[in-house]
Design goal:
Blueprint lengths: L1 E3 L1 H13 L3 E8 L2 E6 L10 E6 L2 E6 L16 H4 L3 E9 L4 E5 L10 E6 L1 H14 L7 H9 L1 E5 L25 E8 L2 E8 L2 H7 L5 E2 L2 H16 L10 H6 L5 H9 L5 H5 L6 E7 L5 E8 L9 E2 L2 E2 L4 H20 L9 H4 L7 H8 L9 H13 L1
C-alpha cells in the first residue's frame, strides 16, 4: 500500500494520457455528475455532494474539498464499453445492387480508455457484462477489445448514497479485484491524501512514474475506517436468501399488479442500470434511397415493441414487463450467468420518475412490511452525520 498527494493524482492523469489513454472521469454537467473525458484535477466535481432518494437526485456544495465525495450519477461505465449506438454496416447503391460495407472495429481504431473513479459496485457490473459480451460462446469483438485495453483507477467509497445497498449484494463499498490502481480518499488532521493499492502490472507501471511513498499503519487504518463508515451508512438492503426460488414461485403474486399501477414503463431503470444489455437493430436510409445503414442501439424489455413478434406481443402489459425485468435481474440471470444481475448501486431507484424501489418490491413479495418512504434516507442521513 502507498500514499499519494493531490499532485500524485494529477500525475496519474498525465501519465495515462502520455501512454495513449483517453482519461474518462467524473464531471459536473447539467446539475448531475456524469462521466466524460477529463484531463486535469480542475475537471473534477470537487466538494460536490449528491443527495438521493427514491425518484430524487440533487447536488449541493459541501464544506469539504473531497474529489470523490459524491456517489453514483445517471451514467455508468457501460456507455463506453457497450455504446448506446453503434453502426453495424452500411449499404450504397451501385449500378447493379448495393455494395455492403461492414463496420469492422480494429484494435487500432478503437479508443483506449482509462476509467477514473470506478466504484466497487460498478466494477462488479463490468465483470457481469464481461460474462455477456466477452466470455460467452460468441464474444463481441469491440467490447472485448475495449475491455482488454481499458485501465481502471478504482475508488473505495467513504460515503453511501441514500439508495445504495451494495453491502447486502456483497459488491461493496470496498473494491476487491478487477482494478489496476485503487485509491481511498482520506481527510484527517487537516491533511488530505489518498491511500493507493496496486492491482496489476499496468498499475505498477503507472505507479513507478508518479510521486508516492509507502503507507503507514495510521494511513491504512484511516482508509479502512472510512470504508467501514460507508458500509454502516447503508439505509437500504435487499434480502437475497433463496431469491431465485422466491421470484420463480411467485409469478402471480398480487404485488405485480400493484407495481404495474405505478410503473410508467419509461425504461429509465434499464438505461441507468450498469448491467442491463438489451439492444435492438434499426435500419435507416437517406431521402434518395441510395444509402442505408444498420445500427445497433440500446433497447429495454420495458418498451412495447421489444416483445413484438409476427404472432403479436407476448408481454403487452406493464405488469408482465416489470415482472420480466425484475425476475430476470434477480433470478434467471443467475441461471444464465451464475450471478445476480443487480449490484446494489441504487440507480434504478433514484432515476425512476415514480420512485419504485426494487428492494421494497422484494420485501413485498416476501410478505414483509414495507418501510416508510422516509425511513431509508433518515437512517442514512443520521449515520452520515456521525461519520463525516
Amino acid at each position: 500500500m502507498y500514499t499519494i498527494e493531490e499532485e500524485g493524482l494529477q500525475c496519474i492523469l498525465r501519465v495515462l494520457r502520455e501512454l495513449g489513454y483517453r482519461t474518462i472521469g467524473p464531471r459536473l454537467h447539467n446539475e448531475a455528475i456524469i462521466y466524460e473525458e477529463i484531463s486535469d484535477l480542475r475537471d473534477f466535481p470537487r466538494g460536490w455532494i449528491d443527495e438521493q432518494e427514491a425518484g430524487s437526485y440533487s447536488l449541493h456544495q459541501s464544506d469539504n474539498d473531497r474529489f470523490f465525495g459524491f456517489v453514483g450519477g445517471p451514467h455508468s461505465w457501460k456507455k463506453f464499453l457497450f455504446p448506446p449506438r453503434k453502426q453495424l454496416f452500411s449499404a450504397s447503391k451501385q449500378e447493379r445492387g448495393f455494395k455492403i460495407s461492414a463496420s469492422v472495429d480494429s484494435d487500432s481504431t478503437l479508443p483506449k480508455y482509462a476509467f477514473i473513479g470506478v466504484r466497487a459496485c460498478d466494477l462488479h457490473a463490468i465483470a457481469i457484462q464481461d460474462k455477456v459480451f466477452a466470455n460467452g460462446e460468441i464474444a463481441d469483438h469491440a467490447y472485448s477489445s475495449l475491455r482488454r485495453e481499458a485501465f481502471i483507477l478504482a475508488v473505495n467509497c467513504t460515503r453511501a448514497g441514500g439508495n445504495c445497498f451494495c453491502v447486502s449484494m456483497n459488491t461493496g463499498p470496498k473494491v476487491e479485484s478487477g482494478f489496476d490502481l485503487a485509491v481511498t480518499e482520506v481527510s484527517a488532521d487537516g491533511g488530505h491524501y489518498f491511500v493507493l493499492e496496486v492491482g496489476s502490472n499496468k498499475g505498477e507501471t503507472v505507479l513507478d512514474k508518479i510521486p508516492h511513498r509507502p503507507a503507514q499503519a495510521v494511513d491504512t487504518e484511516r482508509a479502512d475506517t472510512a470504508i467501514r463508515a460507508a458500509a454502516g451508512q447503508m439505509g437500504k438492503a435487499m434480502n437475497t436468501a433463496n431469491i431465485k426460488q422466491l421470484l420463480y414461485e411467485n409469478s402471480e403474486h398480487l404485488e405485480w399488479d400493484d407495481v404495474a399501477k405505478r410503473c410508467l414503463t419509461c425504461a429509465n431503470c434499464t438505461m441507468v442500470c450498469p448491467t442491463c444489455f438489451c439492444s435492438t437493430v434499426e435500419d435507416v436510409t437517406d431521402l434518395t434511397g441510395d444509402h442505408a445503414e444498420r445500427w445497433r442501439r440500446w433497447d429495454s424489455c420495458f418498451t412495447l415493441d421489444f416483445t413484438k413478434v409476427a404472432g403479436g406481443n407476448f408481454r403487452p402489459s406493464a405488469k408482465s414487463r416489470y415482472r420480466q425485468w425484475m425476475t430476470h435481474k434477480l433470478a434467471s440471470w443467475i441461471d444464465q450467468f451464475g450471478t445476480s444481475g443487480c449490484v446494489g448501486c441504487g440507480r434504478c431507484i433514484t432515476w425512476c420518475p415514480v420512485g419504485i424501489d426494487i428492494t421494497e418490491e422484494v420485501r413485498a413479495i416476501r410478505g414483509e412490511q414495507r418501510l416508510p418512504p422516509s425511513h431509508d434516507m433518515e437512517m442514512s442521513d443520521n449515520k452520515a452525520k456521525e461519520t463525516i
